[in-house]
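User: I'm writing a tutorial on reading structure tokens. Could you give me a worked example: one chain, its sequence, then its tokens, then a sentence or two explaining what the tokens reveal?
Assistant: Sure. Here is the example chain.
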Amino acid sequence: MASEPLEYGDAAFSQGVTRLLESYRAIPDGATVRLAKKTSNLFRKRPGTSAPGLDVSGLDRVISVDPVTRTAQVAGMCTYEDLVDATLRYGLVPLVVPQLKTITLGGAVTGLGIESTSFRNGLPHESVREIEILTGAGDLVIARPDNEHRDLFFGFPNSYGTLGYSVRLQIDLEPVPPYVELRHVRFTSVAGLQAALIDIVAARSYRDERVDYLDGVVFSGDECYLVLGRQTDEPGPVSDYTGMEIFYRSIQHGDVTEPTRDRLTVRDYLWRWDTDWFWCSRAFGAQNPRIRRFWPRRYLRSSFYWKLIGLDQRWDIGDRLNKRKGLPPGERVVQDIEVPVERTTEFVEWFLDEIPIEPIWLCPLRLADPSPAGPDSPQPWPLYPLKPHKTYVNVGFWSAVPATPGQPGAANRRIERKVSELDGHKSLYSESFYPEDEFDELYGSVAYRELKRIYDPRGRLLSLYEKAVKNA
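And here are its predicted structure tokens:
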């Protein structure tokens, strides 16, 4: 738990909003409006700037939690780590908690978030009741699914700060018991895993035992796992993966007939991936037992690895080390994509054959039912048009491959083509290489241009294509 109260009153929130508005008005006409923030969970390289940005200080905490209505009022820059610490005091958590502690609620809504409850609860923006947004025009508007700003409410997800910034969000919460019991189910083929995944999503159970959390890891074509979690208040011993033990290694076992079991506190379960940034801490030597033994626990977390990545991006440390070893520079392949569940095997087997990265993460998702848009909406979220009542699988892969000389982004471009071929989409938090016409087709250009006209008529904010592809 944090050392200071995580909930604060309306007066403190109002002061934060005042600073935000004053900082917007201080930015000269014609200058691009950006957030003045030092951290980010985006993997796109962005040009440095000395221009003043929006002051978001004071907009980084939980405003209030209502345990009766199971809702929370949250400032947009609040991290999920602080949000979860506040709601767990009442035995509640957000319906979807993204995997990394420093992802902000506003970031997960204007971008995209996903986790192991997404097969039953959808994506983070689907449990939002209302959003207070500072638009590109400098107005504060409250967007709900049933008011005059419903177009912005449904167009805000996947806009990545190009329509405005969330100042306050009201979100739904769900009750949780203290523990999560896990089963690690091994499969010797991706096709076998896909078949089981389809059945589990439909039944919400496996071998007559309820499934509340569901994701998976592919280590190779003949070693892949589903991790099934069940909420429980049954007391008993729990594992600890915040020190020497590594969560993703605990998944692996040899028996394909009987799942292995594990138990975690609900808080440790929610952050099970953060300690090692899934498995990416190995790039820094943090998984070497001789190094890990002396690695301070407070630095076993994604936010610290982010700082190391920042140094590498600034000084090209990885490429310089490769050059000394006689190796080519690396092409960063850090992506999350979604394909329809029935195309999972096709994509994963293609990926394993073509892209030398392992492990890879799998997470099923379905849009929330009922949708905030109502039962008859064919695609409620126009900037990321997934279909209701259809299961998708998020595939996450985060590493680097040898760069192809003279072909920047060659591996990423091949992945984009394959994802489109399989009727999928990819998230925009990392590099993208789409031509503008294809990008517009994939990410709701007609709806987006209308939203831009209404809420950012002077173009104070960058466009989505400028941010996602041109890295402006």
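What the tokens reveal: Residues 1-6 have pLDDT under 50 and may be disordered. Residues 10-26 form the longest helix (17 residues).
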